[in-house]
Design goal:
- It is a single chain.
- Helix 1 packs across helix 3.
- It is globular and about 55 Å long.
- By secondary structure, it is mostly helical.
- The protein folds into two domains: 3-73, Winged helix-like DNA-binding domain superfamily/Winged helix DNA-binding domain (Arc Repressor Mutant, subunit A); 91-226, GntR ligand-binding domain-like (Four Helix Bundle (Hemerythrin (Met), subunit A)), CATH 1.20.120.
- Strand 1 and strand 2 form a beta hairpin.
- The chain has a two-stranded antiparallel sheet with strand order 1-2.
- Helices cover 66% and strands 3% of the residues.
Length: 229
């Protein structure tokens, strides 16, 4: 046990981790330091740290993905302890996909009306990183980031919060393991052209086209996973 952890109980470690996140200026979607770095920074053991991370994840303050890391959740998600755990057990993957089809095309429409030049630049950079991703984990991380950047570009905090809440449930829902036949997405992967269409419509300030392009993209994802939704 680390010397400065001798008098620290589980609640102390959780409080220390919360303070670290607050003082670090992390924003929703930011990746938290690795477990190895947090152990050193907080002066706690791996076992205590993991219990504290479990607590914050249950509260909805963070979300974790194997191979990607630990990320900060939306304050709206974090404000309802237990809601995420309850919803994730009640929602099926198909229902989740239908919810995305209901919300995200409308978000893309708003993005076309309100996205700034800086937001557009960030979305394009994220799209390009997805294309160059060396493996599926990195592609999926960049795909997640791109969809959130589109929500951010609406400059509507309520829409962004709704997106974050939906996305938190998406990560918690039990998905069947997707079998990959390659190390990374092929250059002809349909999502690349679909992302281009979405961003092209947003940049052209065409809300109807942006909405349709997002619906086409999510419909394509749904078809690969479930057939029809």
């Amino acid at each position: 046990m680390l010397m400065n952890e001798v008098s620290m109980d589980a609640d102390d470690v959780v409080a220390k981790l919360r303070s670290f996140i607050e003082d670090g200026g992390y924003k929703p979607g930011d990746r938290l330091d690795s477990e190895r770095e947090l152990i050193v920074r907080l002066g706690v053991t791996r076992a205590r740290l993991r219990k504290a991370l479990d607590t914050l994840e249950h509260e909805g303050a963070i979300w974790r993905h194997v191979g990607k890391g630990t990320f900060i959740a939306s304050p709206v998600v974090a404000s309802g302890p237990g809601n995420l755990a309850i919803l994730s057990k009640q929602v099926t993957p198909v229902q989740l996909m239908r919810a995305r089809l209901a919300l995200e095309p409308a978000i893309a429409r708003e993005a076309a009306l309100h996205a700034s030049e800086e937001a557009m630049r960030r979305m394009k950079e994220c799209r390009d990183r997805a294309v160059e991703a060396p493996d599926w984990d990195e592609y999926e991380a960049q795909d997640d980031n791109l969809h959130r950047l589109i929500a951010e570009s609406t400059e509507n905090v309520l829409l962004l919060s709704l997106f974050d809440h939906l996305n938190a449930v998406r990560r918690a829902v039990a998905w069947n393991t997707v079998v990959r036949s390659s190390e990374r997405p092929a250059r002809t992967h349909s999502s690349f052209a679909e992302h281009d269409a979405i961003l092209g419509a947003i940049e052209a300030r065409d809300p109807t086209a942006a909405q349709a392009a997002m619906r086409t993209h999510l419909g394509s994802v749904a078809a690969r996973l479930f057939g029809e939704v």
